[in-house]
Structure to design on (458 residues):
């Protein structure tokens, strides 16, 4: 009998401990923090039981995601770069750590939604409060690259061709492939479509193809002075929007307080038996749902505004840096630029065309006023061709018009150029904000660094 009582108490203690642990895990997930050990690149803060960035590994893991998102690297290649070039070592613990990243480890990183701001537990995703490295759209793109395009990535990386598997033939809609002949890269149609006769029998040299792409991209490029102007206008718009957002935030705070009071009153009514269980549970769940929705809106408002501002700024950085990356960048960087330009990349009869991305706005009419006010010269200076001289004069005219501060700053030319550029900034903001689906704009500040641009090109 004594043994049976001891066993019963032991079983009760074990069952109670299990429920307490599960309740604690659910409570921590509800608060937005991962229970247990966090992913590589993050650390558990033992003081307040939260998750913080690892000062040594956070940036390295984020660079791994950037490499994978470029579409030119496979996970094994990312492992080699991280271990050999960056000197990556796993976090040192009591009986483990301090070793190079393994192949299984990189696949665990690229399949973990924790880096996108979500916690996977029990087959469900919970919104986390830690600092995400990437967006959910970028995470989904990496999943498709890892699972569906391993062979294609490996073939592309081995051949080191910049524009294969990106452009299609405008006649038969087959992919454009490349080959090396006498030390030069030539692109041509694969003619893989059955039942369709392709008339594109010629080839095009890589330098010529890049000139065609650069000519199309020139319509969407800007000079540094216009980029600075856009950043200033974005700052002004952000300040104005912050004032409006503050009013909305205060209104939602008042609504949240009122709902919390209603919930307290409802609990008091149930305690005095003024409501039955069915009505109480129905009204309680409805109020909790509204409160949870408002809390999520309040928490996600600042993050969404920051992500939106980051996308808009990336769009103008793309317009500034894309021509330089396309001219001097590595193969991976050029692929990122061409992929981000738009969709339906087509090559037919030696002509390149595409459907531009929604956030790309043409800039070729920005210099209307500047063209009217600049002096005309009969011949270009020494070292300039007629085309290059016209481009040089166009940019100088814009710079002089937008940077003058005295006298001519109040002329009609300045007002016209400034109004036109403000309208372009507004169009880009509207195009990005109107997109319901998640999309990504590459950050060319990371792939246009000197060490990337200094890589030798084939």
């Amino acid at each position: 009998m004594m043994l049976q009582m001891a066993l019963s108490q032991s079983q009760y203690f074990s069952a109670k401990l299990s429920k307490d642990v599960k309740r604690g895990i659910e409570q921590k997930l509800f608060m937005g923090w991962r229970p247990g050990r966090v992913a590589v690149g993050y650390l558990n803060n033992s003081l307040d039981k939260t998750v913080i960035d690892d000062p040594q590994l956070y940036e390295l893991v984020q660079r791994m995601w950037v490499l994978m998102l470029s579409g030119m690297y496979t996970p094994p290649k990312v492992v080699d770069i991280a271990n050999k070039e960056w000197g990556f070592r796993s976090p040192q613990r009591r009986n483990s750590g301090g070793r190079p990243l393994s192949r299984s480890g990189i696949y665990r990183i690229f399949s973990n939604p924790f880096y996108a701001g979500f916690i996977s537990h029990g087959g469900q995703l919970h919104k986390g409060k830690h600092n995400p490295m990437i967006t959910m759209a970028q995470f989904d793109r990496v999943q498709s690259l890892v699972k569906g395009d391993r062979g294609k990535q490996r073939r592309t990386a081995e051949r080191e061709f910049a524009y294969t598997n990106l452009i299609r033939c405008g006649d038969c809609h087959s992919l454009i492939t490349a080959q090396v002949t006498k030390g030069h890269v030539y692109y041509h149609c694969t003619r893989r479509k059955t039942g369709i006769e392709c008339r594109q029998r010629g080839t095009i040299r890589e330098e010529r193809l890049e000139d065609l792409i650069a000519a199309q991209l020139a319509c969407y490029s800007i000079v540094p002075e216009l980029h600075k102007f856009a950043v200033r206008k974005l700052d002004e718009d952000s300040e104005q929007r912050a004032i409006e957002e503050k009013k909305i935030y205060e209104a939602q705070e008042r609504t949240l307080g009122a709902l919390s009071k209603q919930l307290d009153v409802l609990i008091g009514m149930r305690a005095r038996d003024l409501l039955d269980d069915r009505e109480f549970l129905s009204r309680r769940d409805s109020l909790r749902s509204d409160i949870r929705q408002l809390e999520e809106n309040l928490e996600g408002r600042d993050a969404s505004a920051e992500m939106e501002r980051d996308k808009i700024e990336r769009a103008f950085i793309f317009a500034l840096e894309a021509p330089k990356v396309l001219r001097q960048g590595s193969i991976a960087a050029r692929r990122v630029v061409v992929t981000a330009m738009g969709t339906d990349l087509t090559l037919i009869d030696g002509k390149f065309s595409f459907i531009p991305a929604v956030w790309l706005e043409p800039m070729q009419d920005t210099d209307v006023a500047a063209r009217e006010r600049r002096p005309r010269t009969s011949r270009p200076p020494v070292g300039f061709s007629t085309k290059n001289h016209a481009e040089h004069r166009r940019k100088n005219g814009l710079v002089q018009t937008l940077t003058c501060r005295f006298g001519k700053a109040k002329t009609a030319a300045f007002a016209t150029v400034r109004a036109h550029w403000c309208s372009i900034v507004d169009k880009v903001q509207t195009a990005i904000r109107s997109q319901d689906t998640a999309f990504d704009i590459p950050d060319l500040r990371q792939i246009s660094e000197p060490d990337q641009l200094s890589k030798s090109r084939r």
Remarks:
- The two ends are 85 Å apart (CA to CA).
